[in-house]
Amino acid sequence: MKSQNGFLKFQRAFSALVIPVSFVIAVIVFKGIMGDNGHFQGNSNANAPIPGDFLGVIYKGGFIVPVIMTLLLTVISFSLERYFTINKAGGKGSAVKFVETIKTNLSKNDISSAISECDRFQGSIASVSKAALQKYQLLEKDTTMTKEQKLLDIQKNIEEATSLELPSLEQNLPVLATISSVATMMGLLGTVLGMIRSFAAMANAGAPDSVALSTGISEALINTAFGIGTGALAVVMYNYFTTKIDKLTYSIDEAGYSIVQTFASKH
Predict the structure, then answer these.
(1) What pLDDT, in 10s, does the model give residues 96-133?
(2) Hey, what long-range contacts does 145-150 have (CB within 8 A, 24 or more apart)?
(3) Is the pLDDT of residue 73 over 90?
(4) DSSP-derived secondary structure for 158-187
(5) Given pLDDT bands bounded at 50, 70 and 90, which one contains residue 29?
(6) Is the separation of the CB atoms in 90 and 123 below 8 Å?
(7) How far apart are CA 254 and CA 262, in angstroms?
């Protein structure tokens, strides 16, 4: 329990730091690398970027770029964190084989071997199964409760153990879901601001300012692409992780159901 609480505290601290740290990194990259004068004609970032210089082109996207870059870095950071966390929660090996092994041990009424298998496999499925098996062992010796009460007690124990595991699995996923929408909207905001700049250049008396016009169009297109790309990545990662969590939850339910059914059939 203490290790679980400590891990959740670490996750919360990590979640709180990712966005501000990503923003600082994004500003440094935007100002110090993309905004370096060497990427622009006349050695000044006030001018148009050198043809073919990708960093200079992105810099001309304007102040919305570091905001979207912050969202992108946040998506990448949370995706990596979720990948390692969920893989660790999946245990060592195949969840299907683990459940089958638990069923086999239960059919032989070998609870000790089933618990040893949980210690070997580890992960969320093993944690919930071990809690249920320990309750199983305890209730086998209890003579004060009816069979129905024991079954309800085991089921309650499984639900409580599952509720302790799910928060660590679903941590930061709401952020990915939010970024999937926010990134696209920020890209559209950058598009609108860029088009405003373009039309302002065209409205000048006489010949339009070609530099200002191209800068505005560049800002519009860059922010659109950057925002949509970030939003798309967030959607893909969110769906990927929710699918993996659903599979883990199904395995937990299957293992729990097997334990309850075995107790019901043997007692």
Answers:
(1) 888 888 888 888 888 888 888 888 888 888 888 888 88
(2) 147/264, 147/267, 150/263, 150/267
(3) yes
(4) HHHHHHHHHHHHHTTHHHHHHHHHHHHHHH
(5) very high
(6) yes
(7) 12
pTM over 0.85: no
* Residue 230, helix vs strand vs coil: helix
Phi, psi of 203 (to 5 degrees): -80, -10
Tokens of 72: 């992108």
Could you tell me where the DSSP H helices lie in the chain?
2-28, 54-59, 64-89, 95-107, 111-121, 123-140, 147-170, 173-202, 210-266
Alpha-carbon 101 to chain mean position: 31
Q: Tell me the C-alpha distance between 27 and 23, whole Å.
A: 6
User: Is the per-residue pLDDT at 210 higher than 70?
Assistant: no
Two tokens, residue 28? 């440094």
Pick the closest to residue 123 from 105, 99, 141, 100 (CA basis): 99
> Predicted confidence band at 147 (pLDDT cuts at 50, 70, 90)?
confident
Calpha distance 86→154 (Å, rounded)? 26
Contact 91, 130 (CB under 8 A): no
C-alpha 93, offset from chain centre: 22
Confidence of residue 48 (pLDDT cuts 50, 70, 90): confident
